[in-house]
């Protein structure tokens, strides 16, 4: 297994930047690349998917720092969102992005005809569960897939081994659990009138011992997926592309969590891996509800599996 | 002629659907469809259903529409091979890679893209057409004007759910259930089961329908919030759907009682036939009283099941 371990230069750590403000408030140094734009809702204030001037400014900053730039796309475009796809493709072309991420296979179909020069990636809501699906998407220009959150590490390994695409593994962050058809915050019962700011303050929904984070058009886990204990083993499996989910988080979260994982990956590549207490403290500081990682080990998403393979409390450390 | 497709959660339900006027019935292969095992069938029962339906000039559609384990591709091919030999008429799939594989290996089998594909626009339909689908089940909220030109823009048959549920999320793009409870097991035949994942194993614990307490910074806590997830009947729009050229009207409901599903089928049959026989003077009004009774019974059955599922998830 160890001979499959990637080298430092092959490793790519990525995260999300929904708007220009997030670009400015984030320490970019831990990351190699960024996914620009909020795929859930085009009404997001300053959403880079539909703000050409802001994308241009963001790209300038990111290029100066030597970072790769990917543009994401809407998760389930209908009606007006579908009409804006032309603008999004234009932004991708004019910015010269390094790739475009697709959650919607219809948009991927369109891009394979209209944006063939830009490498495509399949996002988490493209629902890739198998190597045969990943191979089919490769015919549409997809070079990287981020499988559905329910796909465990063993299956990801199969996808990477038996298809021509690279698999992106999420190392940390709230798990994207669902796309909401009609914004929860604009629902009749809630009737918020502060769109597009409303979703920037998340709603925490609690029942039984479950918590979810609702951002209007998207549902995330309440717990933060956390793989810091398992980094060396993830690398041993041969994965090279990693993601931290941070679109609806603060700049401090993005910056500090990113730094923990950058150091963790470097240490794991050097061998003799261990997790610093300081890393645990930082991750805990940014996790309001605790940690989970169950899906990756074939368990319920909200469970936390430790290094020994045992389920332990969400409030670890 | 529009096809009325109904759900077969058991052999008795298949019979009830056929005898009440369905043109076709869909059934789920054990471990491979978007419902829990109680509403799926073993291979022998599927064969029995195929024989029964074919003897009455009806079609059988088999749902193999879970998103399987990456190690189950060969098992999937064997399963389809077996069903094709019965024979069956159509197969319902979700994974686009498996669609392509099926198209290549079983060119005579017609492939329908499942509701789990979340087809929200005509571009999605084109993608699945190219993967091998000849018909697509559209997302529940797709407006009539989009349905109407889907066939023209994508060159596929169009199937609309006239009785189903609009989940809080886009159906097929939600993992809230498996986030809370998930059990993985392998049966004696090597089939992998993912209890708690609607996408992979069919069972959804419907946790969106629990009573949530909502906390938001700077605001008072709110209690008793239920995320929207509504069962619906499309009824008034049936004539418009027929006029728009929709190929199949589908009644979802394998988890309901056989009597209720049979009554739903009979009602829709009467409406469709009534409209087709005399479109100009057709009125939906005389059928609404019966619809109201069915709604009442459906909601009672659904409410009981939802409470049981949420309790199951919590334990």
Provide keyphrases for this structure.
heterodimer; A: 317 residues; 8-stranded parallel β-barrel; 22% strand; B: 315 residues; two-stranded antiparallel sheet; 10 helices; 14 strands; 39% helix; globular
Descriptive notes:
The complex is a heterodimer of chains A (317) and B (315). Chain A has helices at residues 20-25, 52-64, 79-83, 85-95, 105-114, 131-138, 153-162, 231-236, 251-270, 277-285; strands at residues 12-17, 33-36, 68-71, 99-102, 120-122, 142-145, 166-180, 203-207, 210-214, 218-226, 241-244, 291-292, 304-305, 311-312. Chain A is built from ten helices and 14 strands. Chain A is of the alpha/beta class. In chain A, strands 1-2-3-4-5-6-7-11 form an eight-stranded parallel beta barrel, surrounded by five helices. Chain B has 315 residues and is an alpha/beta fold. Chain B has an eight-stranded parallel barrel, surrounded by six helices. In chain B, strands 9-10 form a two-stranded antiparallel sheet. Chain B is globular and about 60 Å long. The N and C termini of chain B lie far apart (48 Å). At the A-B interface, helix 5, helix 6, helix 7, strand 7 and strand 8 of A face helix 4, helix 5, strand 8, helix 7 and strand 11 of B. Strand 8 (203-207) of chain A pairs antiparallel with strand 11 (212-216) of chain B, so a sheet runs across the interface.
